[in-house]
From TrEMBL:
The keyword Metal-binding applies. Keywords: Heme, Iron, Metal-binding, Monooxygenase, Oxidoreductase. GO terms for molecular function: heme binding; iron ion binding; monooxygenase activity; oxidoreductase activity, acting on paired donors, with incorporation or reduction of molecular oxygen. PROSITE patterns: CYTOCHROME_P450. This is Cytochrome P450.
Length: 404
């Protein structure tokens, strides 16, 4: 039942429509069909779910919500709104403060030096995971999609790879917790580890040369070193931004390829097309529901919004907008006509995903390394596919079989 107390007086009744991307039964069963049908709704509507929030359903507007920090502030990006005690650098800052953090992160943590071994490490970890499968079968979500990004994160940071299982349990609590309590428990455990781990590293900063940790120590912001609190915030940001997202993305792409042998064969026979195919898959299977807070009272495309209203920029909705992508549900590796399809899967504007290169490397390795070794790939018969959704859409489980 709609909770009318969550509908502010300035929201016109004709724009009120329910949409709960975390819990709607339909989005769990058929996320893409459900999201494609949002196109039949107004360009802007208000859902009383998840604390009450605006949703824009056109790619051009989603681009605007991401980019117009003068209208939409990133100080709050979670839906429902989260406790403001956790501020993540750089995500929760608007320009100009954001620009300084972003610049130093791009120049240091994400520099070619810090990422020098990313590709060979990713290939080695991917092969080790494949070798750990029972021949011809895996539960892709737990056996691969969760593990590869965590291994890479720990390796890049210069942390102990034995921490994988702990990280996995915190990530599952934070993003897939059954309630706010579980989410908080995961967050507190991860933040506790970050604090202790940073203290240990700072006691002996010369170890793990070339790691992201060392790059963080070398970073300067307005001419000074980062404070301990800033380092904690950045590490937690990378932990929360860079793991669950890649996992979610991998699950939809592998499901699609397991169900579509022609597309799979094309990638195995034409590895030179992988970079183009990947962008089309990122367009088709957007995963993120990102929030902003309205920065001041505005008239946005004819709709009155008040300061503090929450508004959602959803990349799955952007990728399925037929105005931007004709026949949007079809995966067409040639869609870009020899160019990479431009999409909003990594956001846009000042907060455009800083980890996009890292994500692309891991997704490319998944396609190049796994597909040729999984002939006759298919989903295990009798499987009911379901998503479990938080800030991203993710498959709950994906049991795969192939001819070993
Ligand atoms: C397929 C994987 C990924 C997807 C789909 C994704 C998606 C996104 C999106 C949509 C945003 C924009 C958020 C906003 O506007 O508020 C974003 C920002 C961000 N992402 Fe990613 N991301 C992925 C992987 C990663 C990885 C691997 C890392 C790092 C290890 C990372 C770190 C970040 C950070 C730090 C930001 C905030 C950037 C800023 O505020 O300037 N992401 N990501």
């Amino acid at each position: 039942m709609t909770d009318v107390s969550l509908i502010p007086a300035h929201v016109p009744p004709e724009r009120v429509m329910r949409f709960d991307f975390r819990n709607d039964a339909e989005i769990r069963r058929d996320p893409w069909g459900y999201i494609a049908r949002l196109d039949e709704r107004p360009d802007i509507f208000f859902s009383p779910d998840l604390g009450g929030y605006w949703i824009v359903t056109r790619a051009a507007m989603i681009d605007e919500v991401f980019s117009r920090h003068d209208l939409f502030t990133a100080t709050s990006v979670a839906i429902p709104k989260r406790d403001k005690s956790v501020v993540l650098i750089p995500n929760n800052f608007d320009p100009p403060e954001h620009t300084a953090y972003r610049k130093t992160m791009a120049n240091n943590l994400f520099s070619p030096r810090a990422l020098a071994t990313l590709e060979p490490d990713t290939r080695a970890f991917s092969q080790a995971l494949f070798d750990s499968f029972v021949p011809g079968a895996c539960e892709f979500v737990d056996d691969y999609a969760y593990k590869l990004p965590i291994d890479i994160f720990l390796k890049l940071m210069g942390a102990d790879l034995a921490l994988r299982d702990d990280c996995l349990s915190w990530i599952k609590l934070i993003f897939r917790g059954r309630d706010a309590d579980e989410t908080n428990r995961g967050f507190i455990a991860a933040a506790g580890w970050v604090a202790t781990w940073l203290d240990e590293q700072l006691a002996d900063p010369a170890r793990n040369p070339g790691s992201m940790f060392q790059a963080m120590v070398a970073s300067r912001i307005n001419g000074r070193a980062l404070t301990l609190d800033e380092m904690r915030s950045i590490t937690l940001m990378l932990f929360t931004g860079g793991l669950d997202t890649i996992t979610s993305q991998m699950t939809h792409i592998m499901r699609f390829l397991a169900e579509n042998p022609d597309h799979r064969r094309h990638l195995v026979d034409h590895p030179e097309d992988v970079p183009f195919a990947l962008e089309e898959l990122l367009r088709r299977f957007g995963i993120s529901f990102i929030g902003r807070a309205v920065a001041k009272d505005i008239d946005y495309h004819g709709v009155a919004m008040k300061e503090g209203d929450v508004i959602c920029a959803a990349t799955p909705i952007a990728g399925l907008d037929p105005r931007a992508f004709p026949d949007p549900l079809t995966v067409d590796f040639g869609r870009g006509n020899g160019r990479r399809v431009k999409h909003l899967g990594f956001g846009s504007g000042p907060h455009l995903c800083i980890g996009a290169h890292l994500a692309r490397v891991q997704l490319t390795v998944m396609l190049e390394d796994l597909l040729p070794r999984m002939p006759n790939l298919r989903i295990a018969p009798g499987t009911t596919i379901e998503t479990m959704n938080g800030a991203t859409l993710m498959l709950k489980a994906l049991p795969l079989l192939w001819d070993a």
